[in-house]
Write a structure and sequence with these properties.
Udp-n-acetylmuramoylalanyl-d-glutamate--2,6- Diaminopimelate Ligase, Chain: A, domain 1; Protein-Tyrosine Phosphatase, Chain A; about 30% helix; 15 helices; about 25% strand; 24 strands; about 475 residues; single chain; alpha/beta
Length: about 475
């Protein structure tokens, strides 16, 4: 596409203008290839304007900036490069309206709900893709970089999906993505809300701002799009009042899709889902009451796509363990991504029901992230678990000891031990575990790394567990 065609209709100034041919769009100078348009986006830690020379050396043929810079490249100056990026991505890759997009937002449950819907769509023989925290899945599967990628990456993925014949895409939509306008030009066939609890208050100034960002997903529905919301959550009830085409799901309140938990144990859930007085029995391998909500959300979202209920149930029951989501590694040792007070509470409350022995938890809190939840996580972990090993998570630029001290401010008793080294902390908990006990390693889940002050090192909670048992 020619540069002039790409930028037509946007408010801009131009310098050194030449109507060059654009082969692709990039915002990361390290990924620029010959013939690319480079968009200089200011970020929290780095400013893309500093890397224009690097992009030029790598073959960029034009640049979009927020201010005039010294460069020989054709330069298009706009007020907000981040805001313009989804507009340019949409024009370059096309609207991709033939793909039905199912967006999921909420604090907890996005990943599991996305995997469930993807499983149902596959069982229904629908060609489906997934964009989420763990994987980007099309005809191939790759490790995810961000829960919701930048606009250019989203459109590039969707374009590849379309070329591969994919017609449905399930997408986790984070509050960051919504506030930073990564999905602003997309329109969703279905928007799902799971729940809201405290998280990301390092990025959002208030819980109200966090909630507002989440609710914006429902502004991005197609004209005839449907909202599917958890009516047991207060924010879900707000959405239901705002959007007339809303379907509700829940366990405690009257809902369009309800559920009764008939049995829950260490091997899964036995549910009875109810819709319009029809009952649907489900046996799921997923653990915990909170997963009943994820199952309900997936059932409701696919039911309104006119997928046969028996097929929906088959898709749900086919879904086994999800990496880092209540994943049993070996011998009642679980790894889970729980990294908020509510998530820790949900997981521990569920696991305690399933065993006769003690529950041990290993957890920490991320550095450079919401400090207000640290003491709350310390309080709920030590209240619900028999013993807690408090350790490092992804400390980033903060000293791990400072983060741990913040956690300890919420601890009331003495049923804990501090071991800063995460691998050592996991091994310590495993050493304490007896036959009927259970160990939960929380916070990092599927992650394959640990972010330290000046480097990222390979690290997997599950691998530490496997090595421990291999050497017994």
């Amino acid at each position: 596409m020619r540069l002039n065609t790409l930028i037509k209709g946007i408010k801009k100034e131009v310098e050194n203008f030449q109507d060059v041919m654009i082969k692709d769009i990039e915002y990361d100078s390290r990924k620029v290839k010959k013939g690319d348009l480079f968009i200089a986006v200011p970020g929290a830690n780095q400013d893309g304007h500093q890397f224009i020379d690097d992009a030029s050396r790598r073959g960029a043929v034009a640049v979009i900036t927020q201010r005039k810079v010294k460069t020989h490249l054709p330069q298009v100056i706009v007020k907000d490069t981040r805001k313009i990026m989804p507009l340019l991505a949409k024009k370059f890759y096309g609207g991709l309206n033939s793909i039905k997009k199912i967006g999921i937002t909420g604090t907890n449950g996005k990943t599991t709900t996305a995997f469930l819907i993807h499983s149902i769509l596959k069982k229904a023989k629908k060609s489906a893709g997934l964009i989420g925290t763990i994987y980007y899945i099309g005809k191939t599967k790759i490790r995810a970089g961000k829960t919701t990628p930048e606009a250019v990456d989203i459109y590039r993925l969707l374009y590849k999906f379309k070329k591969a014949g994919i017609r449905y895409v399930v997408m986790e939509v984070s509050s960051h993505a919504l506030k930073l306008q990564r999905v602003e030009t997309l329109r969703f066939h279905t928007a799902i809300f799971t729940n809201i609890t405290q998280d990301h208050l390092d990025f959002h100034p208030t819980l109200s701002d966090y909630k507002k960002a989440k609710l914006h997903l429902f502004d991005l529905l197609e004209k005839n799009g449907r909202a599917v919301v958890n009516i047991d959550d207060a924010t879900g009830r707000d959405i239901a009042q705002l959007h007339p085409r809303t379907l509700t799901y829940g366990i405690n309140r009257k809902a369009d899709f309800g559920a009764k938990i008939l049995d829950e144990n260490i091997n899964g859930l036995k549910l009875q889902l109810v819709h319009k007085n029809k009952k649907y029995p489900i046996h799921s391998k997923l653990l915990g009451r909170f997963n009943a909500y994820n199952i309900l959300a997936a059932f409701a979202a696919t039911f309104i796509m006119d997928i046969d209920p028996d097929t929906i149930i088959q898709g749900i029951e086919a879904m086994g363990s999800i990496p880092g989501r209540m994943e049993r590694i070996i011998d009642n040792v679980f790894v889970d991504f729980a990294h908020t007070p509510a998530a820790i509470k949900n997981v521990l409350t569920s696991l305690k029901k399933y065993i006769s022995g003690k529950v041990y938890i290993v957890f920490g809190c991320g550095g450079d992230r919401d400090k207000g939840k640290r003491a709350k996580m310390g309080r709920v972990a030590t209240r619900l678990a028999d013993f807690a090993v408090i350790t490092s998570d992804n400390p980033r630029s903060e000293p791990p000891g400072v983060i741990i001290n913040d956690i300890l401010k919420g601890v009331k008793g003495n049923n804990y031990k501090v071991i800063e080294d995460r691998a050592e902390a996991i091994r310590y908990a495993l050493k304490l575990k007896k036959k009927d006990d259970l160990v939960l390693i929380a916070g990092k889940g599927h992650e394959e790394y640990q972010i330290l002050k000046d480097r990222i090192v390979p690290f997997r909670d599950a691998e530490v567990v496997r090595k421990w048992f291999a050497h017994l």
